[in-house]
Amino acid sequence: MVIEIRKAVPEDAEILTNIARRTFLHDNELKPASASPEGPPGHDSIEAQRQWIESCLYYKALYKGQIVGGGMAWMENPEIFHIDGMYVDPDFQGLGIGSALVAHILKSHAPGKKWVLETPSFSARNHHFYEKFGFIRTKEIPNDLGWSDIYYEKIIL
């Protein structure tokens, strides 16, 4: 199989951190000129990645056996799950890896649940990506980083 999705393990933290750092640095090309160049909190910290691997439903995406991305889900309560921190190395985007990752997460944890996520306003490709999975835009809230956060949700029956 070319694309595989597996649970991340603590030993993956360093490589996942490097890929996340590279991916979110690449996102700076999309941000408004006056926006903060920072990525999501913790994305560039090996220790934060390790803690998420140990405490969340954290998955790694592999392409031809190589780790090329990751993402996590976490439970707010028994009825609401969050998708968070999704990323695919820029060199491997457009190959269906992100789609495989989201599909796996939803299929593995979804029945009868509400899923929520947020993504930045400057990333139209993210909006289209989540909308093709049936996520509905619910609100937009300006932040102090120079863009707005777009919130989505989906109920899986």
Q: Give a short account of the largest sheet.
A: 7 strands, mixed
Distance between the termini: 29 Å
- Chain oligomer state: single chain
Order of helices and strands: EHHEEEHEHEE
Q: Say what the CATH topology is.
A: Aminopeptidase
Strand order of the largest sheet: 1-2-3-4-5-7-6
Task: Label the overall shape.
Answer: globular
Number of helices: 4
Beta strands, count: 7
Query: What amount of the residues lies in strands?
Result: 35-45%
C-alpha-based Rg, rounded: 15 Å
**CATH class category:** Alpha Beta
Protein name: N-acetyltransferase domain-containing protein
GO molecular function: acyltransferase activity, transferring groups other than amino-acyl groups
InterPro entries: Acyl_CoA_acyltransferase, GNAT_dom
Keywords: Acyltransferase, Transferase
Explain the layout of strands and helices.
Layout (H helix, E strand, L loop, with lengths): L2 E5 L5 H15 L18 H10 L1 E7 L2 E12 L2 E9 L8 H13 L4 E7 L3 H9 L3 E7 L5 E8 L2
Helix pairs in contact: 1-2
Would you kindly provide a written description of the structure presented here, covering whatever features stand out?
With 157 residues, the protein is of the alpha+beta class. It is 30% helix and 35% strand. The protein has a single domain, classed as Aminopeptidase. Strands 1-2-3-4-5-7-6 form a 7-stranded mixed beta sheet, sandwiched between helices. The longest helix has 15 residues.
